[in-house]
Request: fold
Amino acid sequence: MGREFVEIFDEWADSYDESVGGHDPEYADVFKHYDGILESVAMRAESPVVEFGTGTGNLLKKLLERNLEAVGVEPNDAMRKAASAKFPEARIVDGDFLSYEPGVDPRTFVSTYAFHHLTDEEKARAVKRYAEELPAGGKVVFADTVFATEQAKRERIRYEEDRGFTNVAEDLKREYYTTVPVMRELFEQAGFTVVFTQLNDFVWLIDASKQEGGDAR
Reply:
């Protein structure tokens, strides 16, 4: 994950919570049911938990409220400071999906609204590493924008453009939003069983469990 991307979030740290609250009409559909999406991820987590893309700590809060041992991994310094200010007792470290040292042996990896920053090749590398580090039955629980098919992605981009939401359309073109079949293949190849549940027009819950003897192939 390039530093130029990480730095994009420097100015967003102060307004991130307002953005995900649905106050921006252009992104309201992206963050629809935001609190429920976080709950869906947190309720499936088992300690110890490593969260990628902690941001300002909204999912971390849900994990801590469930008395789970959780470590946040966040590459942006401003976001780490914002989360640490809200949760001074929490451990939040510098790192990302592919480079991290959480200091615990994880039972669950979680993330929301972040995995699309990796290319499909990088996603596959990350999931393979998670399979190597998790015990049998360990889990990866991510919620992120994913599309049923490439055609569905193209249609969504056209829809956003037609209603004048050019920022959303450009985001969908620029970032590495992938499809359910691609995600299913990379998780299954790494030795996971995986279930996909659509949570809003953009976001899918990816609930993957490492199979017994399911080391990455």
Summary: The radius of gyration is 16 Å. Strands lie at 49-52, 70-73, 91-93, 108-112, 139-145, 192-198, 203-210. The CA atoms of residues 56 and 81 lie 8 Å apart. The domain at 3-210 is CATH 3.40.50.150 (Rossmann fold).
